[in-house]
Specification:
250 residues; alpha/beta; Arc Repressor Mutant, subunit A; five-stranded parallel sheet; 12 helices; 5 strands; 12% strand
Length: 250
């Protein structure tokens, strides 16, 4: 079950909030309010963390120019549909700037629930909520296999494949039984094992080669997954190789 569609509100107009947002039973309409922001900076932070389905955004929030704010939001939360509350003089500019983007402009002075819901429905039809298919998840796993040594994040992968971050995170666990971070660490540790067994690369270098940025963290993850430290594992490999060689030579 997908659950309610999520909404982030970014509007510094307290009176408008009381009249139009606070009085609405969003739960009954199938929505969940993730938060309310009053500055552009707060909106960026919350959108990046929550990856909401919808963002109701006052185009004159303090802190940033409205155009750059929307452009940044589309980058950090590509699956979020933006309802931009504008003055009449702003609408033509924004409609031109964000043509064929998940952005809908509404007149702030004549805002009411029916116009909000109508705009949401339109955006949802034109930019539907995507569910990763089995083939899409396979592509994502292949992408990780090819780029495991890079500084991968789930945000980057969600953006690359055009999925909502939070939704992809849930689907990843559903398909693989592991979180994205757990799965990525496992792939990196598998490659580390190969290097420990079949190369003379120093352990102090292996962690970087397979994509970890911190040696101590690499050792902790390795021991958690394998049950031994990288040093202990390599010593066992050397011992087994020595024993096997001695048996073969008999």
């Amino acid at each position: 079950m997908l659950g309610p569609l999520t909404i982030l509100i970014a509007d510094h107009d307290t009176q408008l909030y009381k009249e139009h947002y606070d009085s609405i039973d969003w739960t009954a309409l199938g929505f969940e309010i993730k938060g309310v922001c009053k500055t552009g900076e707060a909106a960026l932070t919350s959108a990046e963390i929550d990856q909401p389905d919808f963002l109701i955004l006052d185009c004159h929030l303090p802190g940033q120019t409205s155009r750059s704010l929307v452009e940044t939001l589309l980058k950090i939360s590509p699956s979020t549909r933006i309802l931009l509350l504008c003055e009449l003089s702003d609408i033509k500019e924004f409609n031109t700037c964000f043509f064929n983007q998940p952005v809908s402009c509404l007149l702030k002075d004549s805002l009411h629930l029916s116009s909000l819901l109508s705009a949401m429905k339109d955006l949802l039809q034109r930019f539907p909520k995507q569910k990763p298919t089995d083939s899409a998840m396979q592509e994502i796993r292949q992408y990780i296999a090819q780029n495991y040594a890079e500084p991968l994040t789930l945000y980057q992968i969600a953006d690359h494949f055009g999925f909502n971050y939070s939704y992809l995170s849930a689907c990843f666990r559903e398909h693989s039984r592991y979180s994205f971070r757990e799965y990525l660490n496992q792939q990196r540790i598998l490659h580390a094992i190969d290097l420990l067994e079949n190369s003379s690369i120093l352990i102090s270098r292996i962690y970087e080669v397979v994509g970890f940025s911190d040696h101590s963290y690499f050792c902790r993850v390795f021991k958690k997954i394998i049950g031994a430290t990288p040093t202990e594992y390599r010593k066992k490999c050397v011992l087994l190789h020595t024993l096997f060689s001695s048996i073969v030579s008999i």
